[in-house]
Design brief:
256 residues
């Protein structure tokens, strides 16, 4: 407060400035979460709660790699946002770096879980291990495909191509939700998980095609009338650095 940083912070002005693209991120997140919840309810109704428990147990072993994917995606978005002006070669380097990091980690996780002894699996999941171990291969292939598309997601999001990413998110929900429900009705949990993996493969192709065809130097989002554009901005300095610098500058110096 003494430095004046918080006094100059105007949350409503900031929200008005970022609203043209932030509401699309919010819509994408809400749509994905609601659809995932609906798919879980539908799967439980079709295949049974016990079968759904086996799927959830198998997904529990994917939590570490999911955390890594989230961290890699966040870091990639921040790195791409700092590329000013947008240069294709530099953005491609960030995209490939994130993709290789997360995909290799997902592949290692897949190998470890496939060779995991029953004793350790039972120790981790209890009786749910018997229903989960047969689902590890398709579910971890799905995670591998998520890792392969994480780099391009970070690239397009960091460039603020929010209209494009929102359309992809909404359109591909059908591919990753409807086939698993059909698979559950036909062949139970295993068929549903393989349908999910195949659907995720289609989604991965869609993300990469969208990224390779986009012009990274184009204006990502224009408001009505074309008067304003949500430009990619360099991330601001951390508040702690601003506070430290201002407090140091305001401290009177003493001369010997």
């Amino acid at each position: 407060l003494r430095s004046g940083v918080m006094q100059r912070w105007q949350p409503w002005s900031w929200l008005k400035e970022v609203w043209p693209f932030s509401w699309r991120y919010l819509a994408s997140f809400v749509t994905t979460q609601v659809s995932t919840l609906g798919a879980s309810i539908g799967f439980g109704a079709i295949a049974g709660v016990a079968t759904l428990g086996g799927v959830r147990a198998a997904q529990l072993l994917q939590r570490p790699i999911q955390a890594l994917q989230s961290a890699g995606l966040s870091a990639g978005i921040a790195e791409v946002t700092r590329v000013q002006p947008p240069v294709r070669a530099e953005i491609d380097a960030h995209v490939w770096r994130i993709t290789k990091l997360v995909a290799i980690a997902a592949l290692l996780n897949l190998i470890v879980l496939l060779v995991l002894p029953d004793r350790l699996g039972t120790l981790a999941l209890g009786n749910s291990w018997l229903g989960a171990k047969d689902l590890l291969l398709p579910l971890n292939i799905q995670m591998l495909l998520l890792g392969i598309q994480s780099g391009v997601q970070a690239g397009l999001t960091g460039l603020k191509f929010v209209r494009l990413t929102l359309r992809i998110d909404v359109a591909t929900l059908i591919v990753v939700i409807i086939p698993p429900l059909i698979g559950a009705a036909i062949g139970g949990a295993l068929a549903a998980c393989w349908a999910l993996a195949i659907g995720q493969g289609v989604v991965t192709v869609v993300w990469w095609v969208a990224y390779l065809r986009c012009d990274v130097t184009a204006e990502p989002l224009k408001q009505k009338g074309g008067r304003h554009t949500a430009q990619v901005q360099v991330a601001p300095e951390p508040v702690i650095e601003v506070l430290f610098r201002r407090s140091s500058a305001s401290t009177p110096r003493t001369h010997q």
